[in-house]
Write a structure and sequence with these properties.
This protein is an alpha/beta fold and about 260 residues long. It contains 10 helices and 10 strands. The protein has a single domain, classed as Vaccinia Virus protein VP39 (Rossmann fold, 3-Layer(aba) Sandwich), CATH 3.40.50. The longest helix is centred in the first third of the chain and has 22 residues.
């Protein structure tokens, strides 16, 4: 197990994730690789938060109602990357919410939180993103939304936008690339975290005009270890008409 996960929780986390995979709540990839990928989210979240923490509209500002800085795992499934993000943990984030629309998966996540003694800092939101994003309790309440395999870029962006306050970030997993003749997939500790910037390939997945409709600025690519991520800053409030009602973001994507 990666050393960044607290030693007293590492074995229990691995057991829970193996059980989640057996239940069909996680993909078939080796659990160690899934944890490494999640630790990449940790590294990118910390880098992005640090890069904006001193800005006037920086995302690392506390929630006005609770005084906490919160992260939402969008479509948490079996707990990747949310459980790893909470265990690592991410600097300055004091509250984690795992959003999962499936009743069975949401109940499994609650069981996992009990087993890992995380209920004081992490909660499960068992609701569709399109509905939760319209609730005053959740709308514009998060500094970071993390998404690993929630859906196509347009769907992920529309469902995430409403949760982010001004200056917050959507951080999402990107498809792997082969660089310098070597496939992505080395550990986070091997290569650290690096800002890659923009590219035509990134613009194709996250078109600036399309994401601007939701309040996002242009996407920026990051790499942690051999894994790639995109970070989209919340540059203006998400329009009230988004997200659209259940299922519409997937049926009629904005871009």
């Amino acid at each position: 197990m990666p050393s960044s996960v607290p030693f007293d929780k590492a074995a229990e986390l691995e057991t829970l994730l193996l059980q989640a995979r057996d239940r069909g709540y996680l993909g078939e990839q080796a659990i160690g690789r899934q944890i490494e990928h999640s630790l990449g989210f940790v590294a990118v979240c910390e880098a992005v938060l640090a890069s904006r923490s001193t800005a006037a509209d920086g995302c690392a500002r506390p929630n006005e109602a609770t005084g906490t800085i919160r992260l939402l795992d969008l479509g948490s499934g079996g707990g990747i990357p949310g459980l790893v993000l909470a265990l690592a943990p991410v600097a300055v984030i004091s509250r984690f919410v795992l959003l999962e629309g499936s009743v069975r998966r949401a109940e499994w996540l609650r069981h996992s939180l009990d087993s890992l003694a995380l209920t004081s800092t992490v909660e499960v939101l068992g609701e569709r993103a399109e509905l939760a994003g319209r609730s005053p309790r959740w709308r514009e309440r998060f500094a970071v939304v993390a998404a690993r395999s929630f859906g196509r870029p347009a769907v992920t962006a529309e469902c995430a936008a409403a949760f982010l306050h001004l200056g917050g970030f959507l951080i999402v997993s990107e498809p792997p690339l082969v660089e310098d003749g070597q496939a992505a997939g080395t550990t986070v500790s091997d290569r650290g975290v690096r800002r890659l910037g923009s590219s035509l390939e990134l613009e194709g997945r996250w078109p600036s005009d399309g994401v601007a409709e939701l309040g996002f600025g242009p996407a920026v690519a990051w790499r942690a270890g051999g894994y790639r991520y995109a970070a989209l800053p919340m540059s203006s409030p998400c329009p009230e008409r988004y997200p659209r009602r259940n299922g519409i973001p997937a049926k009629r994507p904005l871009f």
